[in-house]
Amino acid sequence: MSTQPPPTARQVDVLRFIAQHTAEHGYPPTHREICVGIGVESTHGVAQHIEALKRKGLVSRKPLVSRGVVVTALGRALLGDEPHDGPFTRTSNHLRNGVIGPVGSEGGS
Asked: Do 7 and 18 form a contact (C-beta atoms < 8 A)?
C-alpha cells in the first residue's frame, strides 16, 4: 500500500479556495470559479488538482453534481479549521512531511 505525498502549494491553494468559497456562499465553487479565484486559466488543470486532493483524502466529490466538491475533515484540519493528527498536519504556516516553506500561491503546481 503506497501513501500519498503531501499536497503541493497549488493544491493547497485550490483546497483553501474551495473552503473559503463554501463558507462565504454556502455552496462549493465551480471549476471555472476556482480558476478565477486562484488565477489560472485551465479548468482541466483545476480538475486534476481536485482529483489529486480527492486521492489524498482532502476533498470528496458528490457524484453527478456540478458543485459537488466538499472539503473533508482532513482537509479542514490541514487548513487549520479543526484539529487532526493525520499525515498532513498543519504546523504554523508550513506543512509537515515534505512540503517545505510557506503555503501559498508561490511554489508551482
From this structure: no
3-state secondary structure (DSSP) of residue 64: coil
Per-residue pLDDT of the chain (109 residues; tens, 9 = 90+): 458 899 999 999 999 999 999 999 999 999 999 999 999 999 999 999 999 999 999 999 998 988 999 999 999 999 987 544 444 444 434 444 444 344 444 444 4
Question: Helix, strand or coil for residue 84?
Answer: coil
Domain that holds residue 55: 9-95
Number of domains observed in the structure of the chain: 1
- Which domain CATH number covers 78? 1.10.10.10
**Neighbour-count burial of 46, counting CB atoms closer than 10 A to its CB (0-12 exposed, 13-18 middle, 19+ buried):** buried
Do residues 87 and 3 lie in contact, with contact meaning Cβ atoms separated by under 8 Å? yes
- Residue identified by cell 479549521 is 81
